[in-house]
Specification:
Layout: E1 2-6, H1 15-22, E2 25-30, E3 34-36, E4 44-45, E5 51-57, E6 63-69, E7 77-80, E8 92-95, E9 100-103, E10 109-112, E11 129-132, E12 138-141, E13 147-150, E14 158-159, E15 164-166, E16 169-174, E17 182-189, E18 195-200, E19 208-216, E20 223-226, E21 232-235, E22 241-246, E23 256-262, E24 268-274, E25 284-289, H2 293-296, E26 311-314, E27 320-323, E28 328-330, E29 340-342, E30 359-365, E31 367-368, E32 373-377, H3 382-390, E33 397-401, E34 405-409, E35 416-418, E36 425-431
Parallel strand pairs: 26-35
Antiparallel strand pairs: 1-2, 2-11, 3-8, 4-5, 5-6, 6-7, 8-9, 9-10, 11-12, 12-13, 14-23, 15-20, 16-17, 17-18, 18-19, 20-21, 21-22, 23-24, 24-25, 26-27, 28-29, 30-36, 31-35, 32-34, 33-34, 33-36
Bound molecules: 2-acetamido-2-deoxy-beta-D-glucopyranose (2 copies).
Residues 364-367, 418, 420 line the site of one 2-acetamido-2-deoxy-beta-D-glucopyranose.
Amino acid sequence: MVLSVKLPCYICFSFLTCFTISAQSYNSVTLGSSLIAGDISLPWVSPSKVFAFGFQKIESGSFLLAIWFNRIPERTITWSANRDIPVPRGSKVELTARSLILTDPSGREVWRARLLTGSSSSRGVTVASAAMLDTGNFVLMDRASAVLWQSFDEPTDTLLPTQTLNQGKQLIASFSRKNYSSGRFSFNLGYNGNLALYTTDFPLFNTLNTNYETFADQGFGSLVVFDQSGSLYLADSNGGVLVNIFPNEISHEKALYQRVILEYDGVLRHYVYSKSASRYGGWSIKSFTPDNICTAVIQQTGSGVCGFNSYCKLGDDSRPHCICPPGYAPLDPNNEMSGCYQNFAPQSCKEGSQDKNQYDFKVLQDVDWPLSDYEHYQNVPVEWCREVCLTDCFCAVAIYRNGGDCWKKKVPLSNGKNDTSVDRIAFIKIRI
Ligand SMILES: *[C@@H]1O[C@H](CO)[C@@H](O)[C@H](O)[C@H]1NC(C)=O
Ligand SMILES: *[C@@H]1O[C@H](CO)[C@@H](O)[C@H](O)[C@H]1NC(C)=O
């Protein structure tokens, strides 16, 4: 049963979101309501139908319990409960007095909303209803309409206008364009108030790896705010702007859908979408950071932005493209970030082997794989650099810089990039 109710102001959970949701009406999802994955049952929608909560089928044929933009053909997902454990057809989500609970067809619990217990946590809290709000926030409430859980507190990779990111919270990028599992990048506001983009220690997520863009490292950030006018900023405890991440001022914000997402390629992007059908054109990028992800990320351990043995080139669309060098082929043709394998028999290291005649180089202008080197020579001519790599069975690529620097590199190659700033030549070894 769906009831239309006015949300009272005391459900406000933070000073920033209070104003915007206080005056909203919402459709109440009542206790005992449920949805089945793959069923024809309609999702739970917000009053304006802009957002919906329910099951979304993904590439693999399984389902995510998700929130999505419901009035655009793309059905863009903004949150999901079970990104790392997609469930099969027939799985069920049910609103009970204990919580919102997702179970698979065998009845095994896959996920449940962890309720805020508050200060008087000795008493068990009881859910009375739930609602999909027009902001894109899904909330569970008690009988007094106090919020017990909300999706805005547990973001996946996306922030919506009026949503905030508190200390200790993060956005984790999807693994790839079509795989929503937690991936290799994080936008993290630490308990210490530092805000940065990091690579993760995928697939563990125990620690953050390399920080590749810092917004605040003085330990003073209190929360990240994405406001209605399209600004994304780090605020202090009074809500004052400390660091502008995307200082947008969209004047016609009511005509747009907006989202900020940390995408699978490590770039934080602000997208807008015109609501008017006449100007239909899908999502377009309003702002993004870092400017050049290919040169921004350098990992001491790990492959860098692209997978091992590939190199990253920023396209005209400002998106990174991961390219396999000659002699190498993609590990997963459906995921260009998966890396590349050597597509030829390796050079023999056996003593007296004449194998080296079987090998030669392809020349790549302005390509380098920083940190993969195991030898460095100075003041040598380019011909010497090629020869010293050719006769060395361990050498996969020689990098030469005008002026006489020569580096020998070994596989797997990491942090590969092609950029004018590289200013070196790569001689990549291939089998003739
Ligand atoms: C998505 O990526 C994760 C992490 O690599 C992997 O475990 C999972 O099998 C992938 N899912 C699909 C449907 O390919
Ligand atoms: C690398 O980039 C430079 C400059 O953009 C270009 O001239 C060069 O051809 C590129 N190299 C490869 C291998 O694409």
